## 1
Amino acid sequence: MSKVILMVTDSMGVGALPDAAKYGDAGADTFGHVLEEKKDFSAPNLVKLGIGNIQGVAWSKMACAAPIGAFGKMAEISKGKDTITGHWEIAGIYTDTPFKTYPEGFPESFIKDFEAAIGREVLGNYPASGTEIIEQLGPEHEATGKPIVYTSADSVFQIAANTDVIPLDKLYEICEAARKLLVGDVACGRVIARPYIIKDGKRIRTSDRRDYAVSPPEDTILDKIKAAGKTVYAVGKISDIFNGKGVTEAVHTSSNMDGVDKTIEAIKMNFDGFIFTNLVDFDSQYGHRRDPIGYGRCIEEFDARIPEIIDAMGEEDVLMICADHGNDPVHSGFDHTREYVPVLIYGKKVKTGTDLGIRKTFADIGATVADILGAEGTEIGESFKEVIL
């Protein structure tokens, strides 16, 4: 049984792309700025894999004399810097027109249609930090039952609710109603359910988040691998990002560590195919909240689990670690940043110390995954299978 395990460390960028200034992200460097801020930062396993050997990174002092893996970084050719665009490009789709964003909030005509569909008024409807807006509008929501809606620099319509006020199933129904309406002139990449509870007097978002995305416009490597008769095992929000398209099995997760646990469980299962994991805490808990120290701890926690992942792997298995965009925790605002992303690869048959250089597109990963698994490739992306194996 052979598997390719792709783990997306959501938002762990490694330096601004050449066009970052067009997005307001000149100088962004998620990983580098975490290192600067967290003075005691230590990630020995990522170092062994070669993260400090990547060309053009600001932390080359972390270079390993004899990396055990292959390493490099990848540019994004698609327009945008959001989750869907990044993951879709990894899987072989080029997005030429960015998903529509709503910096002034959603049109009043849509909000009225939405309120009519769900039978209640809403609060908010402006760009905001999710943790801040539930503090600002939580008391009114809890008193009136009106859900809180907000957006960000991404193409998202987020709906927050206290589950004691709007039960989880009802919140999901409300999100499904929004998904049906957000098409055409008010198209939106994702509707996101953001449930929270009150614990010890504090409003805390729960792990019952659910994303309602648009379907990919064409087949991705997930479809190609599935068509080849192999398993596509989605961990975390991967199935939501692809709207289930091309996925044969899926499990949701409550945290990064739960995501690692479920990935290890999948590695030990008896199937040939692709394990595609998203670890979202880097992004949701620390990048958006502009918490470089917390972000650093989050990387360290993941780093400590890498030996367990490797130990679970079989002789033919290949592990890939990458990201989908940046989210520099010292950058202005609270949104994603336009950055290169790392690619780190390990396997018993992977050539150690292989420098993959600077890849032209995230899709090179998808092309390589398909190539290794004997599936048809996609229109974009160049496989580096022959370079690493």
## 2
Amino acid sequence: MALLEVRSLVKHYPVRVGLFSRRQAKAVDDVNLTVNPGETIGIVGESGSGKTTLARCILRMIEPTSGEVIFDGVDLLKLGQSSLRTKRRELAVVYQNPYLSLSPRLAVRDLVSEPLVTHTSLRGDALNDRVVENLEAVGLSADYLNKRSRQLSGGQAQRVAIARALVLRPKLIVLDEPTSALDVSVQAQVLNLLVKLRTELGFTYLFISHNLDVVQHLADRIAVMYLGKVVEVGTTDQVFSQATHPYTMALLAATPEPHPDRKASLVTVQGSVPSLTAPPTGCHYHPRCQWAVERCRHEMPALRLDEDRRAVRCHFPREYFQASKKFE
């Protein structure tokens, strides 16, 4: 049984256009996604693709326009505030910038213990022992208990944020660009920590990032988003070795190639992301796709399973994949 099922999730924002008219910005547009227990799903795409909005809708930090979010058999969108508050102890989130997510007024002891005070009856020495246990799990000692976030390095602050996220042993942790604000060497440390925690404690991650190298290191499966829609879903190996949507291939081609003797792909992404208030007709990606044909300009492709059990939103995914191989 899946831990999380996102069904036909939609989030539209009303946007004023001119003095007297409004349009709908389709930030998340009919997204379907499944996350299994113990799995890490990477959500990738350019800025404005809807990655963070999708995560916030799943957590009900913002209210979706429509759809279902089935978490552990319960539709979170149908819960009242009291029931949702109880269910939220099974969900956690780690944000991009730890200094913005950690109150500068609170000591590390209070930051990490806050979820325990809110959702459990632990107090006194038992509470303190649980905090120390979680700090040690992320590589920090009890010496940090009385420090404030401003006294911590970026890597230390993000470790505190992770300790706070895992203190209730949630069933799902949303990681929203958790390493992008850190130095490269610290990024590697935090990523290795996340892998270690998942292996030892069995966490399930929804990992949001624009960095494909980071996602490749952590994710079991990858969902690629473009203009509010999922355009490709597959295992990490499938996506990196056999990408079949032109947008996915362009993202991979834009990633720096560490092997100087290997020929670069000629698959390119042109132009910029269109406006969410006026998306292109047909396939939203067609104005930037080097292989677009007339059908792409008028008909939105469905997200369909191919013979490898991969989901692809494209009229001709296999043909594009074969064409891209000619350039390697």
## 3
Amino acid sequence: MATANKPGLLDRILRRLSSVPFGISMLILLILMSMTGMLIMQINVDGFDKYYASLTPSKQIMYTDPIVRVLRNWTGAELRELNILSLVDIYRSWTFIALLAVLSLNIVLASIDHFPGAWRYVRKKKLSATRQYAKTRDFNAVLPGDGAGDEALRVAAACRSVGMKPTITHEGSRATVFAERNGWNRLGAYFVHVGLLTIFVAGFATAKFSFNGSMTLQPGGESATIQGLVYDLDKVKVGQFALPFLVECTDIQQTLIRKEGSLEANNTVDWFTRIRITDQQLGQTMDGDVHMNKPVDYRGYRFFQSSYQPVAKARAVTLDLTPMGGQTESVTLMRGEVATLADGTKVRFADFMGNSKAGPGGEDYTDPVARVQVLAPGATEPASVDVRPASATAAVTASGLQAVLTDFEKVGASHTLSVQYDPGAWIFYIGSVLLIAALSSVFFASHQRVWVVMDRDADGQRKLFVGGHTNRNRPAFGRRFAELVSALGGPTTGREEKS
């Protein structure tokens, strides 16, 4: 007796990889690893160092990739940036990425196996049927027919009235009207596959290429690098990451609840960091305004407000300036701005201290001093003058200019921006939208089909044999089927029957 050829090793592997049970197993493992990442604090979360210090030595070893530890002790190699299965950095571990890859392969292979059959089912419709076929559908009814020449057209119109698209087929004396609704629903599972694969690609891109860092900026400062944490098992180091563009700070601002209050966060409504991005690679410049709950995005990089340095500074000062023998002029100057008085004297706002006794690092405004540079007419070098409020002694320059500080806008010395680069973010958003839309189409729609066969019954009478079925949501289809039967002249209430 001849025996069937035994499948080869490759065929058996592919069959296993494309099986639904294998895919479900991989999905369960992926969910368990994701839950582990939520239950165990990850290494890039603020406060990880304190969390790690609170763990017992055995947990510290188990949580920070014991496999890599064994390999290091065995080989003597440093094996930097190797992450086989670190529970505190699980989303970037090789095991997690490998699970994503295997599950993606399972989805692709399963789709290749089953999609052709589903496509044929949608494309090659069963347009004609027999009376026996109609009578054996899940939903069926037998109605009297009139045999008129426009009977098929009347049936087709009834199908359209209940939201189904009809097709008329004639075979000798028998005519069939096939009508369906939501035929694309049969392919809904494959749209779900596309959404999942898109999300998996986003996860891989995030794990492989994303990083977080920060930059501290003060007005007039610029930077083309950010500082970020580099992890090696349980060790944390500060590293530098280069940006493909230059970030310049043009202004910082702090909106206070009480103008006379401090720079503390509980007295602050918002922080503003105005930046200018100069991209020599693309030959373009962009201005951005980073403030609370409103980040700035550029080339996949996102800039958030992170913190500020509460050193007492001023964004702008208002000065009363009185030249010798002249009229008093009130001028408001932004930091670095220059004003020209009526007699030609130039005054520039250079710096500010909230407490001159505490020095440049003071955090209160008990003794505010605005440092200005005054260039008298005909002078070649500016004179530096410390200007105080009227309650103190007025500052007088060599040229006789008297200066009094009348007001100032409080602001910290600098702002720290958090910089996030995640090329997988937008891919994830697209995949999520696709997945939600696909799942909605699968669960909230159904493929409904009806055959109305116009033929003679065994008693020789011309009748309408109506049969239909759906792949889900039978109650909704039952109501539509009853509406169709009613439109064809049958009873107003329909029943699901089996003949």
